Each structure stands twice: as structure tokens, then as C-alpha cells.
Amino acid sequence: MFGESHGCCVGVMVEGVPPGLKVSEDYINSELARRRPGKRFTTARRETDKVEVLSGVYMGYTTGAPITMIIRNIDVDSSFYEEVVRFMPRPGHADLPSRLRSMGFEDYRGGGPFSGRLTAGLVAAGAIAKKILEEYGISVFAYVKKLGSVNCHLEEPLPMSSRELKRLVDERDSSPFYCPDKNATERMTQEVAAKLREGGSIGGQVEVLAFNVPPGLGEPLGDSLDGDIAKALFSIPGVKAVEFGSGIKLAEMTGKEARDSIVVKEGRLRVEPGHGGGVLGGLSTGSTIRVTATLKPTSSIPIPQQTIDWRGIEPVELRSWGRHDPTIVIRATPAAEAAVAIILADHLLRWMPYRIAHYYRLEAGANESS
Questions:
Q1: Using CA atoms, how far apart are residues 328 and 178, in angstroms rounded to an integer?
Q2: Which of 9, 119, 233, 245 has the fewest C-beta atoms under 10 angstroms from its C-beta?
Q3: Which helix (H) or strand (E) holds 316?
Q4: Do residues 339 and 235 touch, judged by C-beta distance below 8 A?
């Protein structure tokens, strides 16, 4: 990913995509629309978020060359950053470490390259990754699992057919909070509205599910599947914790309670109930992958905060103003979905040569025996 929040554009370059994959700008734009600002309970910044594919796609199909995509920044207002952030780092943001790292040459406007704006490139790359996964029947689904004190309850059992999954996606997308639970959506609306009246913000959790992932994806120890997924999720600004399956709850369980059983369902091996989140030893088990990302509340709020003024290293009180999300969890949902899709597509393409080599060995052995 590249670009800055208030620069000319943000974008991404995706390498290693096989040729012949059908991709259109309209499809990528439909994915970006889910992350686009300006909706209810998001920042007032108005961006069209229309992708421009500069390379790697010709006549509607991938060519095998690197795919370069940009999304132009249209609605930029840097006044708050020029007047305030230029001299006073915002607590809870990357302003302080980025200035020290760059020795005073950082782009402080809108957080520069550390802004959530860059997740537009992540979502665009995720759209390509999803096309790869679709070829092999793999689906990725993300939703807001928790917002503040409100939990979104996902109906069990999890969808196994494309029709069931589409129904779940439609239910999620009908909610302004990407929560497929109408009762929880109503309570989330009340909680966010209350925080807005107080001038505050709210954090939460995004859960990502990956269905029909074949067993054996991952290259431990260095490139374990769960390690790579966690790293990708941590690239989303505001993510402070990542858990697989039962996560930190495992610390309170006994060995008997935390064990998963190996069963056969619909002709496939399953590891249930899924305390490990579909990954064991850094490898996919063939069961649904379940990972949760926890996001902190938005740090830019009108309530005064203590910071310093670079011009004299004097303590000052900072009151934020400008355009900010009351919660970053909503727009982080499509970004988290994209991040997991990218890692799965990458590991799937790494895994395929092993399968092909094994197939040819079997074919060669059959020919020799005949």
C-alpha cells in the first residue's frame, strides 16, 4: 500500500496474481463502497473512492503483471492539521513516533501514511484476492462482533452453502454497523448516539470467518497462517489485539474443555467446535477459520487531552476538531475481510505447486506400474 491521507491519492500494487482472472473496476468499486466514508456513524469526509487500475488488467482480465491501483483523494481539509497537529502531536495517534522517526519531516496531515485512509488500498487488493479464492470455492465474511458493550450474535450453525452465505451477507449489509443481528443493531445505534452526545467515541471487535479453506495452508514457523493473518490485521490502524477461535478465553479453560474433536461432516474432516480458530501448528485444519480483531476507540474527540507543543516542548491542552469517525469499527470491517482474503489467496497460491507436484508423482507412478 502507498500514499497519504491528504496527498493526491492512496493505492496498492498486487503482485503474483495469475493471468486470466476476470476483474473489472466496477467490481472493485463495489467492494470499496463498503469502506467509503460519509455514511451514517462515520466521518463526514466525502470521498468517491473510485479505483483506477493502472496496470496488470487488460480487456477485463488479469495479465499476470503486477496490478497497480490508485484511489484519488478528493475531499481534503488539512486546516486542523496545519493549525494544530503541525505543532501538537495528538495523543493516541502516530503523530509523536512518526515525527521522531522522520526527524521532523513527516506528513502530519490526516495522519499521513499512518491513516485509516490507506485501508482503501487494502480493500482494493482484497477484491482481487477474493476473485482468486472464488475459483476454489473459498469465501471470506467479516462482521462487527461487538461495539462497545453490545454483542452481535451470529446464528449457528455457520452457513455451508453459497445461498446461506448470501443471506448472511445481505443481513449484514442491511445494518449500518455490519451486524447481522437486528436487535443488536438497534442497541448499537443507541450506544453510538449516546457517545456522540457526550463528545466521545467507542471501540469494538470485528470477526472474520473463512469458509471451505483446504487443510495445510501455511508455512510455519516463519510464515505460519495465523501469524501472517495477524500481521495483516495489525496493518489496519486501531487494531490492538487479534485472537483465533476462543482466543484469550482459553486461559480460563481446562485441557478437556479446550480440546477440539475431529469429526466427519458431509464427507469432509472437521475440527470442532473450533477453539483453535481453524488453525493448528500454523496450518489450516480444513475447518472454518475464525479470527477476531479488537479495535480501540477513535482517539480524536473534542474532550481535551494533554500533549506538548514542539515549539517549546511545553505541556499544553489539545482539543480536537475536524472530521473523524465516532467509531472506526464499522469501516474496519471490510478492511479486515480484505486482509484475511489477501493472506489466504497468497498461501493458496503457494500451496498449489505442492498439490500439482504430488499429482504428477502419482501419475508417473501409475504409468510406470502399467
A1: 12
A2: 9
A3: strand 314-318
A4: yes
pLDDT given at position 140: 97
CA distance to 116, 258, 264, per residue, from 121 (Å) = 10, 38, 39
Cell of 19: 493471468
Residue 198 near residue 155, CB atoms below 8 Å: no
Q: Does domain 2-369 have CATH number 3.40.50.300?
A: no
* Band (370; pLDDT cuts 50, 70, 90): low
Under DSSP, is residue 74 helix (H, G, I), strand (E, B) or coil? coil
DSSP for 4-20? -TTSSEEEEEE--PPTT
Q: Kindly state the cell numbers that stand for 114.
A: 499512518
- 192: enclosing H helix or E strand: helix 182-198
Cα 340-66-71 angle, rounded to 5 deg:
70
Sketch the domain layout of the chain as residue ranges. Answer: 2-369
Residue with cell 486542523: 80
DSSP 338-368: HHHHHHHHHHHHHHHHHHHHHHHHHHHHHHH
In three-state secondary structure terms, 266 is coil
Burial 137-172 (b: 16+ CB within 10 A, else e): ebbbbbbbbbbbebbbebeeebbeeeeebeebeebb
Please tell me the pTM assigned to this model: 0.93
Comparing C-alpha atoms, which of 71, 69, 51 is closest to residue 15?
69
Residue 321 scores a pLDDT above 80: no
